[in-house]
Amino acid sequence: MVESIFATSKVSADRVAEMRKVAEQLDVDLNKDLEISNDQRSRMFRVEIDSAIENGKITKENQELIKEIQKGFGLENNISKKILLESISSRCENNLLNAVASLRRGNNMDAYSEIEKMLNFGNLLPIHIKNPIASQKERNELFSLFQTFMDETTEEKKVTEKVNLLKIMLGIN
Predict the structure, then answer these.
(1) What is the pLDDT of residues 84-111, one digit of tens each?
(2) Alpha carbon separation from 114 to 10, 108, 111, 169 (Å, rounded)
(3) Which ranges of the chain have pLDDT less than 70?
(4) How far apart are CA 17 and CA 19, in angstroms?
(5) How many CB atoms within 10 Å of residue 4?
(6) For the whole model, what pTM was predicted?
(7) Which three-class secondary structure state does DSSP give residue 34?
(8) Domain coordinates of the chain in residue numbers?
(9) What one-character-per-residue DSSP string does 81-135 give?
(10) DSSP state of 36
(11) Are 30 and 36 in contact (CB under 8 A)?
């Protein structure tokens, strides 16, 4: 299963999660029993973590899955924390770049979707994204766009939390 995961050009989060669960069910240690390198286990951890955060399975309130995935890949705390921090930082930057690109193309729904994904990552670790590709004007436009498209059915407390988080991430006072 591991070989087939890395045989493709893009590592699939679903296949990684399935492989980890099968190994767990069969009581197979990916490091000791199969001698899978630390780099490969780290890469699979990152792929599965990225997907789970993006899809809302891992949130600030629900982080148990991180420990479960970490244990499944046999990674030490310091390694998994480093991977998680790198993941959050790079994914937030990428989502901001995609949101700006969508905004420049006039595709507001795609921009909003990218902001939502960015907030899923930022919710775990609120960071100010310092990437210079997004001008302050574009950051303000994204903030306004987010407020416009914000789901009216979302409870007021959640709206306030998301708005405040987005202000931090975009560097808006």
Answers:
(1) 999 999 999 999 999 999 999 999 999 9
(2) 21, 10, 5, 13
(3) 151-154
(4) 5
(5) 10
(6) 0.84
(7) coil
(8) 2-75, 87-170
(9) HHHHHHHHHHHHHHHHHHHHHHHHHT-HHHHHHHHHHHHHHHHHS------TTS-
(10) -
(11) yes
